[in-house]
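Write out the 3D structure for:
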Amino acid sequence: MILIQAVKPLDEYKVFLRFSNGEQRVVDLLPLLRGPIFEPIRQDSAYFRTVHVDEESGTICWDNNADIDPEVLYGSYPPAWQEVENTIHGDSENTL
């Protein structure tokens, strides 16, 4: 499982991430900041910049308990909200 080892907030809701496999990359979080828990993060760039790594879960989080799955950040899986939308709209790649 890929975990986050370090995060540095950048401009325009992007972050620099270092993953447990040694990879480093810039990730645009704006498309992932959906739902009420992310509202304060979207509305306040200063609050966005308080992002930090939760050592226990190995992912990024904020003080309001918002977090993003490290596998989603790595690109291995779509965010949960996208999977739900795909199921509702029949756009799932797994549909036969």
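The chain has a mean pLDDT of 88.
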